[in-house]
C-alpha cells in the first residue's frame, strides 16, 4: 500500500512536509511529475535513491491540507495512497523544544513490519518479525518500540509466541504441498499434518529464558533528537525509511541492564555540551552516531538468576562516529573528555560500574551498519585514582571482553557476533546437541558458526568438532560406495551443485572471519583461525589429506555426519541448502533460527520432493524480487537436483528475547 505521511514541522503553521511511500525506482522527478499531474501544489519534492519515501514540502499548513485531501483515495500504480502524520525531523526542531508533535495515525502493513527500533539490533534482533506480529507504529516511547510485549505477563508472552510460531509453521506445510511436483506423491509428513492441525511436525513447546529482565549483553543506542528536540542516546521510535528519526531514552525497557542505561545516560549528558554535532540522518553529516554497550559476565549457572547485575564483570563501549572534516586535535580532545565522563560516571554510580575498554569505530556510510573493516581505535582509559592513562594498544580490534557459555570462556571482540542472552543461549545449544543425537561416532558441522559457540560447547559430546566442511564433504564423497545407484546419482547432483562457477563466487564472498575462543574450558586463549564450519560449500583450494592413526581419513572415522545450522536472519544461502540436501550421507540436521520465516522458506526447499526433471537452466522472467520468501522457495524447488527430501521431525521454541515478539525456533530435520 502506498503511504503518504504528513508532518507539521513544529506548529508555526508556515511549513509542512509529507513523506510519500513510493516505488523504489522512482526519482524526485517522478514524484514531482506525479504531484503536478494530480494538481498538488507544493514547495519541493525529493526522493533519495533506493529509498521508498519521498519528502514533500509545502508553503503552509493550508497547502498541506489541500494536498492531503487531493491525494485521498488516489493510487500510484495499483497501490492506494494512505495519509498519516509522521514524527518530525527532530533535528530541525532542536530550537523548538517543548513542541508537541502530532501522532501518526495510520501506516501500511509493510511499514509496521519495519517500524521498530534499530536500537537492539544484531543478527538476531530487531522488532520486525512479521511472524510474530511486529510492533505498533503508534509507539511513543522506546519501551513500546523495543519491548512491545512488556505489558503482558511472561506466561502470556510465551503463549503469544507459541501461537504465532504455529501459524508460521503451518505455512511450511501449505507451501510444500503446493510445491510438490505433479505426479509425485505427497510425503507422509504433509499427509499426516491434518492430524496436527496443519503443523508440519509437533511444536513441542517453548523454553523460557532464565532471565527475563536486563538479559541483553549488547545494546546499540542510536544518537539523535528526542520528540522534544533534545540530543538523546537511546532507541529510534521507528524506521528512517519512513521518515522517523526521533530517538527516546531506554528508560523502562526491561531487557536493557541498568549498566547499559547508565552509560547511555552519561553519553547523553556529555552530548548536551559537546562541540561536535550529532549525526543528521537526512543529510548524512555530523559526528556522533551510535553507542554500543557490550557486557561480559562471570561464569554462572542458568539457575543463578538472582542479582544478575552483579555478574556483569566487564563492559566494552563502542562509539560510532564519522570524523570526516573534523580536525584530529578536536577529535582527540572530545574523546578524552568523553572517556573522563565515562570513568567518572562509572565510579560515581552505586554500585560502581566496570569499564574495560572504550573503542571508537569511524564510519562514513549512510546507515549505522558499518562494514567489517571500518577502522577501530582503542581509547586509553584514565585510572580513577591517579588520573594516569591505562596501558593500551591503539588498535581497537584487540579490545576484548569475556563471557561464559557452558563453562567455556569466550573472548569477544568489538564486532563479533555473540548471542545476546547468554543463559538462554546455553539452553538453546544444549537442546540442539540433544536433538542432533551426538556421540563419539558423530562428525559435527557447525554451520554459520560465528564465534564458534555451538561447536565449542558441544565438542565434548562428539568425536570431532573441527575442520573444514569442504575438504571433508569432498573426501566423504570419494568414499561413497559405487554400487548404490541412488547415492551415486545424488552425489553427482551434489558435485554439479557445488561446481557451478557463479555460485562458488557467491559463496566465496559469503565467507567471513570472526574471533573465536579455543575449545579449552580452563584456558582463555584466542584463536584467529576458524573452528567448526566457516565455509558453507565445498570450495577448498588447498585440501589437506589428514589421516588418523588407524589409517582412516577423518571423515571415514565417523559413522554419522550431523550439521547444526544457525544462520543469520535471512536464512541459509540457496547453495548451502543445495549442498546439504544433495549430500546423501547427511541424514539429519538441526536448524536453529532467529527468524522463523526464513526457517520455513529454507525448509520448503529441504523437505519438498524434487521434480524428476528439474528446471535448471530454464529462463524465468518472473518478478522474483516481488515474491514472498515462501514463494521464492517454492520456485527454487523446481530446480532442486534430484535428491531425497528431509522431513520435519519436531520443533521447539526457545525464548532468547523476552518482552519482544522474537524467539528462536529449533527444528530437527531427518530423512
Ligand atoms: C545467528 S548467528 C549464529 C552464530 C553462532 N552459531 C552463535 O550462536 O553464536 C549467524 C552467524 O553466521 C555468520 N554468517 C553470516 N553469513 C554467513 C555466511 N554466508 N557464511 C558463514 N557464516 C555466516 C554471522 O557472522 C553470524 O556469526
From TrEMBL:
<feature type="region of interest" description="Disordered">
    <location>
        <begin position="102"/>
        <end position="138"/>
    </location>
</feature>
<dbReference type="GO" id="GO:0006396">
    <property type="term" value="P:RNA processing"/>
</dbReference>
<keyword id="KW-0694">RNA-binding</keyword>
<dbReference type="InterPro" id="IPR010280">
    <property type="entry name" value="U5_MeTrfase_fam"/>
</dbReference>
<keyword id="KW-0489">Methyltransferase</keyword>
<protein>
    <recommendedName>
        <fullName>RRM domain-containing protein</fullName>
    </recommendedName>
</protein>
<dbReference type="InterPro" id="IPR035979">
    <property type="entry name" value="RBD_domain_sf"/>
</dbReference>
<feature type="active site">
    <location>
        <position position="594"/>
    </location>
</feature>
<feature type="binding site">
    <location>
        <position position="419"/>
    </location>
    <ligand>
        <name>S-adenosyl-L-methionine</name>
    </ligand>
</feature>
<dbReference type="InterPro" id="IPR029063">
    <property type="entry name" value="SAM-dependent_MTases_sf"/>
</dbReference>
<dbReference type="GO" id="GO:0032259">
    <property type="term" value="P:methylation"/>
</dbReference>
<feature type="active site" description="Nucleophile">
    <location>
        <position position="594"/>
    </location>
</feature>
<keyword id="KW-0949">S-adenosyl-L-methionine</keyword>
<dbReference type="InterPro" id="IPR012677">
    <property type="entry name" value="Nucleotide-bd_a/b_plait_sf"/>
</dbReference>
<dbReference type="InterPro" id="IPR030390">
    <property type="entry name" value="MeTrfase_TrmA_AS"/>
</dbReference>
<feature type="binding site">
    <location>
        <position position="566"/>
    </location>
    <ligand>
        <name>S-adenosyl-L-methionine</name>
    </ligand>
</feature>
<comment type="similarity">
    <text>Belongs to the class I-like SAM-binding methyltransferase superfamily. RNA M5U methyltransferase family.</text>
</comment>
<dbReference type="Pfam" id="PF00076">
    <property type="entry name" value="RRM_1"/>
</dbReference>
<dbReference type="InterPro" id="IPR000504">
    <property type="entry name" value="RRM_dom"/>
</dbReference>
<dbReference type="GO" id="GO:0008173">
    <property type="term" value="F:RNA methyltransferase activity"/>
</dbReference>
<dbReference type="Pfam" id="PF05958">
    <property type="entry name" value="tRNA_U5-meth_tr"/>
</dbReference>
<dbReference type="InterPro" id="IPR045850">
    <property type="entry name" value="TRM2_met"/>
</dbReference>
<keyword id="KW-0808">Transferase</keyword>
<feature type="domain" description="RRM">
    <location>
        <begin position="19"/>
        <end position="88"/>
    </location>
</feature>
<dbReference type="GO" id="GO:0003723">
    <property type="term" value="F:RNA binding"/>
</dbReference>
